[in-house]
Amino acid sequence: MLSFLCFHSLLLPANLISILALKSVVNKLEEDTLLLVLGDHGMTKTGDHGGDSPEEVGAALFAYSPSQLWHKEEIHTQNTVSQIDLVPTVALLLGTPIPFSNLGKLIPDFFAFPSQELRSISRVPLEVKPLFNYVCALHRNVRQVKTYIETYHSQTGAFSTSLLTKSNMKYQEALTMLSRITQILESQVKITAEDINNLKKDLNETEKLFSSYLILVSNMCHEIWAQYDDFSIEIGFGIFSGMLFVSMLVLFGVPVRMPYLVLLQTLEGVCLWSSLPLFLLVLTLLIPASFILLKVSKMLQRLDPLPGRYQCIETDVLAVVLCCMHAVSLTSNSFVMSESYITSYFANSIMTFVFLWKVLKKKRSEPMLRRDRFRKNLKEWILFLLFLIASKSSQLFLSCREEQPWCDVSPFLKPLSSLRLSKSQFLNIRYLLSGACVFLPVIGLNRWFRKLGNHGVFFIRHFSLTYGLPLTAVCLWMNWALQAVPSSILDKLPAWQQTFLPRIAYLMIFGSLMSVLIDPVCARLLTEEEGRQIKEAVHVEPKTKAKDKLPSRKKRTTNSKYHKSEEGAQTDKSSAGSINARVPVVCGLGTVYSSNLLQVFISVFLLIALLLGDGLAPSLILMMVQMFTAVELKSLTDREENQKVPVVPVWLVALWSMMSMQYFFTTGHQATIPSIRFETAFIGYHGNYPSYLYWIPAVLIILNTFAAQVMFAVAVPFMFLWTLTRRNLEEGSMTDVPKGEMELQLDSDLFKKGLSHLVLYFVSFQALQLCGTMLSAALHRRHLMAWGIFAPRFIFEGVSFLVTLTALSLSCGFVLFTHRALGKWIDRHLNRPV
């Protein structure tokens, strides 16, 4: 080590101290002590480690002892040993039983001298003593392996009967020879040189039989334990990546034709040339698969809401590149272990680039004074900084991996009961903060409905908004206070007292979701008297006075001239300010879609907050802040570009997908099995579940683990709706109220195409990350950390993809359900003769 360092190097003192420390350890070793220095893996010249190359699987093994380790006459010349061979070797050297499931073989050089049990045979010649000692120790090793294999086969029946018979024959033959050698050594008084030569031959033959037995058993186990179905892996990855590629081509407006698909599949077949059956299968399915992909691509092209080809935008290109970089980074174990920080970095990078690009673009197109430009961009700057602050603050809720010893557990992830004595002041602050985090969204939802007039007319909808959801927030807060009680006291309470509050919360959340399905049109048709008062106020009074005459809880109005009965409001075009007295007036019709979706979102938010606990409630608020800032910046861009039809840019969908992965980690989770919070299954339930209710704990654990994916999937339609909702919220004259979300009813086909386009974009970005985990798990299936890092990451991403698809289908299905119900409501109430 020192030979690579100059005497003026800053590393020289530290390395000298390390070498002197090792020297002091060696000098203090006693005669019966063995020092083993080894590495768990090797490294290539480029620094790669953990793979299956010869440089990575090889490592040095250094053994030292003050006493003699091996006999002058060497047993074997063995340059390499397996890591599993250390287990039986160290166990026998320590005098402890060999672990039951061991499959390793003893290292011969450490057994040249007899153990206490073998010293009873005192007539062993010096020439064969090292070999005899090793064979006796190896017999113990083989006997342990044989016991394990027989037990494993009796329980699973996994091994071939012929191979088991063959291995047993080898064992019996070796055991017979060892018994004969022992009898010869005990019976003969004088051993001649010829006898010594015969003993050497017999001992070598016995050692070969024992070694061949261990090799045969090891191969048997490798056939059933360490084999991968490469054919299925390549088929699955090829199909998934091919469909993802075709979907991205269609989304970006690239025409998909038959020659392109044939070329794509031919390239896949060439890449899989190493697997001849797979190559033949690809060639066989080439033409029919191309027809299928072509048909799918044509169906997808019908979803494009914009005519013509896709226009390449720099922000969209960068967002796609960053998402691809994140997917490729999943092939590195270091990146996977630090993914909780990397996803936040990628999300911030997308937002920063998009914001700066918009500012610079505006600066070039609108030359003005610096002061005026700053005032005009002040709102954008505030939203941008708010996004970055929320993203940075969310890292307070990260959990630690086992591979991160430097990481400290966040105090927000500790139970409240554990903070009573050590951090009582922080406990009070955290409890009050969690209460504010669950009450603020509920209060904001009620204010939204009161301001926009979306309470509807049905009692169940009004009850859920006014009493149900606030009661849910109260139950959550009181339940968290109950969790702060020490477990010794809490366990003494009756079971119903421990589960009463969560069950009430479950009931209220379920009632809120059902009320939206029962009354999906949260708008109110005013009576003729109320409508006449508003029309008179609009016609003769200023805007502020007209608003004061609106009925309570209904501050915004939309009259029927924006719907299918336009002719009733425009009978006299010469007087544009006059309003037909018989035209109905409706409150809240411009925000029906967003109001319904917002109530569903807040209901899901309360459910997720209940499952995550009080410590992670602020993280959910930060999630909502980042969602709002992203869609608000997008809506400001749409307003400046005068887009009448909402078009969701690619960068926003990519950012949405990246934030869903970011908040998977900032809600206290990691892609490891030990990080799963199984205690969530018992929130609201005490004791064991009956067999017919096993699905309930599974659903609760999945909702807890993939809370971020569920929240972002439910909120996906907001990316499409917020621009229209934002227009409806802007102040305007009472005679020209913005149509808002009623634009969607005017062009139903365009709405469905745009929503389908958005869903396909979001699913494609999620599939891109899944494709990255599939690639990493396939490439590193022989990696040292395959089962600790890559396999769990692939499993979590696969389940996350399925959860996202489910939540996204329900969310978009609900929006389409609202669209259909609103159309029927308009036909029933507004398209009547006037």
UniProtKB/TrEMBL annotation:
Residues 552-562 have a biased composition (Basic residues). Coiled coil: none annotated. Residues 1-21 form the signal peptide. GO terms for molecular function: mannose-ethanolamine phosphotransferase activity. Residues 540-575 are annotated as: Disordered. The keyword Membrane applies. GO terms for biological process: GPI anchor biosynthetic process. The chain crosses the membrane at residues 235-256, 276-296, 342-360, 381-398, 429-446, 458-480, 500-526, 692-724, 758-779, 799-818. GO terms for cellular component: endoplasmic reticulum membrane. SUPFAM superfamilies: Alkaline phosphatase-like. Residues 540-551 have a biased composition (Basic and acidic residues). InterPro entries: Alkaline_phosphatase_core_sf (IPR017850), PIGO/GPI13 (IPR039524). Keywords: Membrane, Signal, Transferase, Transmembrane, Transmembrane helix. It comes from the Eukaryota. This is GPI ethanolamine phosphate transferase 3. The lineage of its organism: Eukaryota, Metazoa, Echinodermata, Eleutherozoa, Echinozoa.
